[in-house]
Amino acid sequence: AQSVAQPEDQVNVAEGNPLTVKCTYSVSGNPYLFWYVQYPNRGLQFLLKYITGDNLVKGSYGFEAEFNKSQTSFHLKKPSALVSDSALYFCAVSGGYNKLIFGAGTRLAVHP
Amino acid sequence: GAGVSQTPSNKVTEKGKYVELRCDPISGHTALYWYRQSLGQGPEFLIYFQGTGAADDSGLPNDRFFAVRPEGSVSTLKIQRTERGDSAVYLCASSLGGPAGEQYFGPGTRLTVT
Predict the structure, then answer these.
(1) CB contact, 8 Å: A34 with chain B?
(2) B103 at the A interface (CB within 8 A)?
(3) Kindly report the CA angle at A60 between B30 and A36, in degrees rounded to 5?
(4) Spatial CB neighbours of B106, under 8 Å, sequence gap ≥ 6
(5) Per-residue pLDDT of chain B (114 residues; tens, 9 = 90+)
(6) Of the partner residues B42, B58, B97, the one whose CB lies closest to the CB of residue A102
(7) Quick one: CA dihedral A46, A93, A85, A82, positive or negative?
(8) Of B31, B91, B98, Cβ closest to residue A43
(9) Is-contact B79 B86, C-beta < 8 A?
(10) How does strand A106-111 pair with strand A10-14?
């Protein structure tokens, strides 16, 4: 069965510092991995995805994610956090099926 | 261009009533998905349409839930005999199809069953 784990309910980081939001997955076959962001009272917005190829994937708003097959991880990163990055972040996997399996989400709080 | 739209944005209904939630996908997107998001959780898959047909309805919790997409565009999620446990945000997404394609989500319908 496919599953996604986001081990941190909340991540706190100071503005200007690098941030990491963790995600691990379990899937049979090749994984298709996604990150989405959810702002208050707004829908989920696509950030980036890993399908194949380069393990470092670049996405919207300066975010990137690193795929690590041996550790079954797909951590979201940004070199310098902004206060406006504060939101709820979801990791998801499709694993060859069309439906997305989401993690429980991680709330990112960036402090000035 | 226009994104995925969902109506109504909020729906309050009494236990036992019937509700319909509507999703209007991005034009040209053949795949349409419904998810349900409870407070403090990630979205949970309900059903996936490819064109007019339901390709995967494995996430529908029981036979009170049903969805249609008769012309391959707009979809309606129907819930019969609503229960308080059905209260959640119902999200719709669309994509060009395929497991690697990113899904674009609407703002959701917040359903409250009293």
Answers:
(1) yes
(2) yes
(3) 60
(4) A43, B3, B4, B5, B6, B23, B24, B91, B92, B93
(5) 589 999 999 999 999 999 999 999 999 999 999 999 999 899 999 999 999 999 999 999 999 999 999 999 999 999 999 999 999 999 999 999 888 889 999 999 999 999
(6) B42
(7) negative
(8) B91
(9) yes
(10) parallel
If DSSP states are collapsed to H, E and C, what string results for A28-46? Answer: CCCCCEEEEEECCCCCEEE
A85 touches A102 (CB < 8 A): no
The residue of chain B nearest to residue A49, with distances taken between CA atoms, is B102
Amino acid at B86: D
**Paired tokens of B84:** 């308080």
Q: How far apart are CA A104 and CA A94, in angstroms?
A: 15
The structure tokens 């959780």 sit at B41
Other CB atoms within a 10 A radius of the CB of residue B102 amount to 17
> Cα dist. A108→A7, A102, B93 in Å?
13, 17, 24
Of all residues in chain A, the one with the smallest CA distance to B41 is A104
Tell me which H or E stretch contains B6: strand B5-7
